């Protein structure tokens, strides 16, 4: 069985994280992956998940809230093990290094030192990247504010008593079998 979920969200209050509860199983070993953007963290986890699927194991994929085609984590219950992208915005650390977690340093595969022009380019791109996320969170905050204003205008026109008369069975019929 394969499951896909999000453990983080870009919201009107900034980044909302549920990574603290990952992995969900008490005692599961957490491998925290560190590395640069585009350095292979997601691909590494995708390969781990695919290998587990090939062996018929249940796999839980954690999708990236900023790019759902990218992975931020993978959990394999049968192995009592999880791998997670431990870089911003969902910085994660092992609870007890060596006992229930460790680090996987994909940065070890990056040729260093970077050339001076690339170091400066990385600094500038990172600055712009962070500024755009700050702007996005401000836009989400403003959108939520406008949504609340619209809701306040519509609320007096809604018949909530009529809405509450829908039975659970009627609501369940709205969803295909595979979702139920």
Primary descriptors:
single chain; alpha/beta; 22% strand; 4 helices; 180 residues; six-stranded mixed beta sheet; flat; 2 domains; two-stranded antiparallel sheet
What portion of residues is helical? 25-40%
Low-confidence parts, pLDDT < 50 over ≥5 residues? none
**How many helical stretches?**
4
- Compute the number of structural domains: 2
Q: pLDDT average, as an integer? A: 93
Strand content: 15-25%
From the helix content, strand content and strand pairing, which structural class follows?
Answer: alpha/beta
Topology of this structure?
Elements: E1 2-6, E2 8-11, E3 14-17, E4 29-34, H1 41-54, E5 59-63, E6 71-76, E7 81-85, E8 101-105, H2 116-154, H3 160-164, H4 168-172
Parallel strand pairs: 1-5, 4-7, 4-8
Antiparallel strand pairs: 2-3, 5-6, 6-7
Structure explained in plain terms:
Helix content is 35%, strand content 22%. By secondary structure, the protein is α/β, with parallel strands linked by helices. A hairpin with a 4-residue loop joins strand 6 and strand 7. It is flat and about 65 Å long. The two termini are 16 Å apart.
Describe this structure in a few short sentences.
The chain has about 180 residues and is of the alpha/beta class. It contains 4 helices and 8 strands. The chain is flat.
């Amino acid at each position: 069985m394969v499951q896909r979920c999000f453990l983080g969200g870009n919201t009107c209050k900034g980044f909302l994280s549920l990574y603290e509860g990952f992995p969900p199983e008490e005692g599961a070993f957490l491998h925290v992956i560190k590395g640069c953007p585009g350095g292979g963290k997601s691909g590494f986890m995708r390969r781990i998940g695919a290998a587990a699927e090939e062996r018929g194991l249940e796999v839980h994929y954690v999708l990236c809230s900023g790019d759902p085609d990218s992975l931020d984590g993978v959990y394999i219950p049968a192995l009592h093990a999880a791998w997670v992208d431990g870089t911003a915005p969902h910085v994660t650390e092992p609870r007890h290094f060596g006992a229930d977690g460790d680090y996987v340093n994909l940065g070890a595969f990056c040729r260093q030192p970077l050339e001076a022009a690339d170091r400066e380019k990385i600094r500038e791109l990172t600055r712009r990247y962070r500024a755009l996320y700050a702007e996005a969170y401000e836009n989400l905050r403003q959108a939520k504010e406008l949504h609340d204003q619209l809701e306040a205008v519509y609320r007096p026109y809604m018949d909530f008593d009529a809405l509450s008369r829908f039975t659970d069975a009627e609501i369940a019929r709205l969803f295909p079998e595979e979702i139920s």
